[in-house]
Amino acid sequence: MANDKKMVEAITSMDEDFAQWYTDVVLKAGLIAYTNVKGCMAIKPAGYAIWELIQKQLDERFKATGVENVYMPMLIPESLLEKEKDHVEGFAPEVAWVTYGGLNPLTERMCVRPTSETLFCDFYKNDIQSYRDLPRVYNQWCSVMRWEKETRPFLRSREFLWQEGHTAHATAEEAEARTIQMLNLYADFCEDVLAMPVIRGQKTEKEKFAGAEATYTIEALMHDGKALQSGTSHNFGDGFAKAFGIQFTDKDNKLKYVHQTSWGMTTRLIGAIIMVHGDNSGLVLPPKVAPTQVMIIPIMQKKAGVLEKAAELREKLGAFRVKVDDSDKSPGWKFSEQEMRGIPIRVEIGPKDIEANQAVLVRRDTREKITVSLDEIDTKVGELLETIQKDMFERAKAHRDSHTHAALNWDEFKNIIDNEQGFVKAMWCGETACEEAIKDETGASTRCMPFAQEHLSDVCVHCGKPAKKMVYFGRAY
Amino acid sequence: MANDKKMVEAITSMDEDFAQWYTDVVLKAGLIAYTNVKGCMAIKPAGYAIWELIQKQLDERFKATGVENVYMPMLIPESLLEKEKDHVEGFAPEVAWVTYGGLNPLTERMCVRPTSETLFCDFYKNDIQSYRDLPRVYNQWCSVMRWEKETRPFLRSREFLWQEGHTAHATAEEAEARTIQMLNLYADFCEDVLAMPVIRGQKTEKEKFAGAEATYTIEALMHDGKALQSGTSHNFGDGFAKAFGIQFTDKDNKLKYVHQTSWGMTTRLIGAIIMVHGDNSGLVLPPKVAPTQVMIIPIMQKKAGVLEKAAELREKLGAFRVKVDDSDKSPGWKFSEQEMRGIPIRVEIGPKDIEANQAVLVRRDTREKITVSLDEIDTKVGELLETIQKDMFERAKAHRDSHTHAALNWDEFKNIIDNEQGFVKAMWCGETACEEAIKDETGASTRCMPFAQEHLSDVCVHCGKPAKKMVYFGRAY
């Protein structure tokens, strides 16, 4: 490790400068490096291993619901991108254009996919003929490119990794059911695996995806009180089907348009993990996505038998993702590294411990120290990892709940946004103009109209007209 | 399945038109669809599931040797591509150029990566400082783009999926050892998992990778007697390190250049599986990469108890990748589909079988039928899958060996290439001009200088000058 020194230097305090704290963590925990390709990052082993654990567990959940993986081309001819009017308006301003193939200019330029609705539609048009071909529930894992002006590692970069599911169904009801099913799958994944509570709801007309009839979202609250959109699921109705001519012969022998959905989650989730769980010592990883769950750190490792015992312990803990740090650094240095990297449990083992047939477990999340007998350390570590996973969720939820406030009038709304930060729950008239005025005045956007509606009052918090929906507002990444 | 009819139509015989047979198989086995993005294919579920099994098993083997996965940007600025002279000459004519980001022309154009040596070098330049940072053994799974003129599904397409490993080492010896280690890992993978025998050897100067000091390759023989390069591993020495300035402080406190390697395998392997194992009924998949290993086909499924027994059997065979085809098609139709898709074992179960407490196993590779008791069907299926895997390798090896001939003089050489097809083993003088003349006269290129050298004669098969190496020649994909 060339960067040991930098790693154990103190990072910026999150209370002092949250944005700088974030940057310090992504760099010093070894998650990414900046590159000479502007707006694009290199994801290093410690970062990519988190993504692999996300992929594996999300993909398993997908497949349990009948999803099949496929791969579509990475380039989209301009004429294809233009077929659905709202969609091209949403994406054309922010795509990268390929105009030359080798030494020759292309007769038609192509963009690097910013998302693949148009490619899937072009594919489904030939692939689907009969009701027997439906539903199609396909997904791909790939990278996409959007030519963002301001970028930040994981949160907003010109290229990012994601999965994009694209489905086709015989009826509107079935498409809506799949849209909601995937949103709930995302929410459960965030809560169970990332230990991150989310609000499930629908985006407003203004905030929905380009070309969608309805966009559903899960919204999480970061440690600084800002919201992060963490996954979205779109119901396209038959809009794309009509634009692309995707028809099938139904059981009644009539030609009908399919109903479609799409849904995606991205490497942005790694940014969410950092900002929900991290602290002033660095990353704090939920055990289920920690590439290393247990780091064994030998104390006085030059003493006879210590390294042997550490290796023995690693074997005994083989059911977990476990490593021994037997490098020639000092234990204190190793502790700082393990904390910076967010490894959930540290096992300290030295000559005195060996003599007493024990070891010390140290929780990364609470720093609590627990002395355990070596005879039952595997059971104890297993239980502790489960406890940590559960406690991390509960702490994040308590933080989210204590930073969620109802606003009954406009003064309350502004006061909360300015002084309390976090989510504001408030009634809204349903008008885009009003939504825009709220954002202009406070910087807070509508995050979602939650599925779990509450009746806070009869009137819009901003304009006083009759209220249509309760909405979560917040400043957002 | 909209395409049932097409699927069970006879495909072109491979003896009549091998190229058309190949195209029929990739389409009718549902592996790919053509797209409106010229030269790029859509990989459908049946094709992508094979790739997922390749990825999983290859990645496990990588990690067992210390490989870590990372992700680099997909775009390469032109100035970066140009840093290593041979490399840019090799790739610049066949890359796709991005010239616009959104509405604005780029100040420097960037290509979609055709391979990522330059990006890894740019990364390693900052990432590596000290001998303690070495070795770096990184890999990425991604798609790359090369602007090919003639394309064929899996074998040569403008975009393809692959893995590319890029390593950095303190010494030349270590880099060479890693280059050979990965080539052997590839060879073992092809033989153990894809049941495909390969020749391991070194590429000639003419055929080596742009920028490499040495390229090693594994070469397989397809059913039509043509060779397919199936994986390559390159030793770059310190050439890229000098071009990019990748230096480290060694133990002796001196600044030194690193030594680098790269190695890759691609979706081309799926083409290899098709052309090594396929037959006139379609695909034949080795059990280890068969997304479905066992297809249970109920006979007279409307009779009471048949579907229940089929479902019961699926449970009993739960240790394998097993499905029941309980659609309303006829058994004969289902047999054809299962054969076209290359599923290794078909289980036939009907009322008479149930009465006799038995089922019939049918091997896809040999069509052999084996009646087994339902009590021990799980054991028998497990054994049979192993036998099929082994037999498929042995058959492919026998075919390869019977299509490999030694040529001691030029007449023999031409005769073999024209009449026998397959590999020609022959002595070679080591001159590029001679190698080119051989290719011009016969269409056969040097496939590799095998590690397992034989002394066939003292002189070059073509020019009669003193021989330096025994070489495998062949016409190739």
UniProtKB/TrEMBL annotation, chains A, B:
> What's any GO biological process attached to this entry?
prolyl-tRNA aminoacylation
Aminoacyl-transfer RNA synthetases class-II family profile domain span = 45-286
For this protein, the record's CDD domains field holds: ProRS_anticodon_zinc, ProRS_core_arch_euk
**Could you tell me the keywords of this UniProt record?**
Aminoacyl-tRNA synthetase, ATP-binding, Cytoplasm, Ligase, Nucleotide-binding, Protein biosynthesis
Q: What is known of its domains?
A: Consists of three domains: the N-terminal catalytic domain, the anticodon-binding domain and the C-terminal extension.
Q: Which NCBIfam families match?
A: proS_fam_I (TIGR00408)
SMART domains hit by this protein: ProRS-C_1
Pfam families according to UniProt? HGTP_anticodon, ProRS-C_1, tRNA-synt_2b
Which reactions does this protein catalyse?
Answer: tRNA(Pro) + L-proline + ATP = L-prolyl-tRNA(Pro) + AMP + diphosphate
Q: Name one GO cellular component term.
A: cytoplasm
> How does this protein assemble?
Homodimer.
Entry superkingdom: Bacteria
Compartments (UniProt record): Cytoplasm
Please state which protein family the record places this protein in.
Answer: Belongs to the class-II aminoacyl-tRNA synthetase family. ProS type 3 subfamily.
InterPro entries hit by this protein: aa-tRNA-synt_IIb, aa-tRNA-synth_II, aa-tRNA-synth_II/BPL/LPL, Anticodon-bd, Anticodon-bd_dom_sf, Pro-tRNA-ligase_IIa, Pro-tRNA-ligase_IIa_arc-type, Pro-tRNA_ligase_II_C
The identity of this protein, by name, is: Proline--tRNA ligase
Q: By its UniProt entry, which PROSITE patterns does this protein fall under?
A: AA_TRNA_LIGASE_II
Role noted for this protein: Catalyzes the attachment of proline to tRNA(Pro) in a two-step reaction: proline is first activated by ATP to form Pro-AMP and then transferred to the acceptor end of tRNA(Pro).
- EC numbers: 6.1.1.15
Q: What is its main location?
A: cytoplasm
Give the GO molecular function terms: ATP binding; catalytic activity, acting on a protein; proline-tRNA ligase activity; transferase activity
